[in-house]
Design a protein that fits this description.
The protein is α/β, with parallel strands linked by helices. The chain has 3 domains: 154 residues, Adenylosuccinate Synthetase, Chain A, domain 1; 86 residues, Adenylosuccinate Synthetase, subunit A, domain 2 (Orthogonal Bundle), CATH 1.10.300; 152 residues, Alpha-Beta Complex (Adenylosuccinate Synthetase, Chain A, domain 3). Helix content is 31%, strand content 21%. The chain contains 12 helices and 20 strands. The strands form 5 sheets. It has a 10-stranded mixed sheet, sandwiched between helices. Strands 14, 16, 17 and 18 form a 4-stranded mixed sheet that branches. It starts with a strand and ends in a 6-residue tail after the last strand. The model has no long low-confidence stretch (mean pLDDT 96). Bound molecules: inosinic acid. Inosinic acid (IMP) binds next to α5.
Length: 407
């Protein structure tokens, strides 16, 4: 059995918790994209953990966590996170492996990320400034440093000096002290796994692939240029592990409303006190940067778009409990665009010019309320994909299998 869990919106859908919950049915959780820009929050009882780089495997279980070549690794974040996880699961280190092909985010990448954002001014993307874009750019420029490079330090020094020299010339970044960097980062080599070993393990195991961000932030099919630099769509699985696999399930996760961090179009965004209310109810502040998230209503045209480009076979709704007690819930059912009505945007450039059309549905007291049942069935029908689960709260086990129309 192989499945992928991914976000159907602009990230922050609650994928971490869902991945952790589902992971007990699998042998390995594999991260295939992104880097420490991700912040997957998982709550076990009173303990809250934010996974930035380590796959959201269920702690204290036998599930392993692999990081594929499609991920860019900030070694300091990786080690700090492992240290935190170790306090709950003392043998976690033994379960984590990193592809020798994964690229390393260097301090100069974070410097470039900040500089580019500042130079873009009003046109900035609103990145997490974690160096993600520049690390992927250097991978494509064939200048990048890979986790496997820490196994041959002499050659690594040459590579580090080359990238440092070029980056200093092009971007005015601080010259890097290669030996100091190696001292701090060399520890990554303990976790390295070669591509053939990773491939065989993946092929012979039950694997849950864990997406980061969401389809709408995908470098190709997202709201370019207001996207991240990785392939967060399901297509990223193949690119992000380096070989093809057959997936049995494409599990798309979405929130009962919408949020976005950073710049870019957001047709159903609400402002003022309406936004404050959603933000405070849902504690919508970035898990990585602490930035307040922009908030809005559920957008069905965008959900249909994300389902279509991802091959989503089942959906999981999260954070509906955040809306408990609101008397009416709005849902965008289509867009008005140039005298036409769009059910699905043909491309995401149209988002700047669409006018959302809303339907207002009855709110619910709690998730046992028949109005909530109607809401779930309505969304599932309007999008044309089965709802497999509904998350009922922040903790790993706050989740129900959705039984459909029968009660
Ligand atoms: P970057 O990934 O840091 O380059 O940021 C690019 C865009 O993706 C910005 O709008 C970020 O706010 C957004 N982004 C990156 N990671 C996440 C995430 O995990 N959740 C939500 N938004 C994210």
């Amino acid at each position: 059995m192989k499945a992928v869990v991914f976000g159907l919106q602009w990230g922050d859908e609650g994928k971490g918790k869902i991945t952790t919950y589902l992971s007990r049915e699998y042998d390995i959780v594999v991260r295939y994209s992104g880097g420490s820009n991700a912040g997957h929050t998982v709550e076990y009882g009173d303990v809250k953990i934010i996974h930035h780089l380590i796959p959201s495997l269920h702690l204290n279980s036998s599930v392993k966590g692999y990081i594929g070549p499609g991920v860019v690794i900030d070694v300091e974040v990786f080690m700090k996170e492992l240290e935190e996880l170790r306090s709950i699961d003392p043998v976690v280190d033994e379960k984590i492996r990193v592809s020798s092909l994964s690229h390393i985010v260097l301090p100069l990448h974070k410097e470039i990320d900040g500089k580019l954002e500042d130079m873009k001014g009003e046109a900035r993307v609103g990145t997490t400034r974690r160096g993600i874009g520049p690390a992927y750019a250097d991978k494509a420029n064939r200048l990048g440093i890979r986790a496997g490079d820490f196994r041959n330090l002499e050659r690594l020094i040459e590579k580090l000096e080359l990238i440092s020299r070029i980056s200093e010339k092009l971007y005015g970044t601080t010259p890097m002290n290669s030996r100091e960097l190696i001292q701090k980062y060399e520890v990554i080599s303990r976790y390295v796994l070669d591509p053939i070993d990773m491939k065989r393990d993946i092929e012979n195991s039950r694997v849950l692939f864990e997406g980061t961000q969401g389809v709408l932030l995908d470098l190709d099919v997202g709201t370019y240029p207001y996207v991240t630099s990785g392939h967060c769509n399901t297509t990223g699985v193949w690119v992000g592990i380096g070989f093809p696999v057959k997936l049995d399930k494409y599990i798309g996760v979405f929130k009962a409303y919408t949020t976005r961090v950073g710049e870019g179009p957001f047709p159903t965004e609400v402002m003022g006190s309406e936004a404050e209310e959603l933000r405070n109810r849902g504690k919508e502040f970035g898990a990585t940067t602490g930035r307040p998230r922009r908030c809005g209503w559920l957008d069905l045209p965008l959900l249909r778009y994300a389902v279509e480009v991802s091959g989503c076979t089942e959906m999981i709704m999260t954070k509906a409990d955040v809306l408990n007690g609101i008397s009416e819930v709005k849902v965008c059912v289509g867009y008005r665009y140039n005298g036409r009505i769009l059910d699905v945007p043909p491309n995401l450039d149209v988002l700047d010019d669409v006018k959302p059309m809303y339907e207002t549905l009855k709110g619910w007291k709690d998730l046992d309320d028949p109005n909530f049942h109607e809401f779930v069935e309505y969304v599932s029908k309007m999008v044309g994909v089965t709802m497999s689960h509904v998350s009922t709260g922040p903790r790993v086990d706050d989740i129900e299998i959705w039984s459909g129309d029968d009660d």
